[in-house]
Amino acid sequence: MVGPRAAGIRDRRNQTLRSLFTDADTQHTIRGTRWAGLQAITEYLDHHTPARDDTVRATRVLTSHALGERKQRAYDLLATH
Q1: Which of 33-72 are b and which e, b meaning 16 or more Cβ less than 10 Å from the residue's Cβ?
Q2: HSE on the CB side for 35, CA within 13 Å?
Q3: Taking the C-alpha atoms of 12, 16, 17 and 21 in order, what is their torsion angle to the nearest 10 degrees?
Q4: pTM of the model
Q5: What is the pLDDT of residues 48-74, one digit of tens each?
């Protein structure tokens, strides 16, 4: 069972991802495609996940092996289905 805090985090993450995929200006020319799905996930991971400040976020984006693996997993899922 998921607690209320975890459910709130999940719901906010999912809403942000949906919004990036369906409404973001960055998706204007590719909206609704698998490529847009990958870009929405990447944009979320790079720009919307919680971070203490911009330096922490930039360092994570540039150096995190786990973040790269998440992006690769998204690519693999979207490329094969």
Answers
A1: eeebbbbbbbbbbeebeeeeeeeebeeebeeeeebeeebe
A2: 6
A3: 150
A4: 0.87
A5: 999 999 999 999 999 999 999 999 999
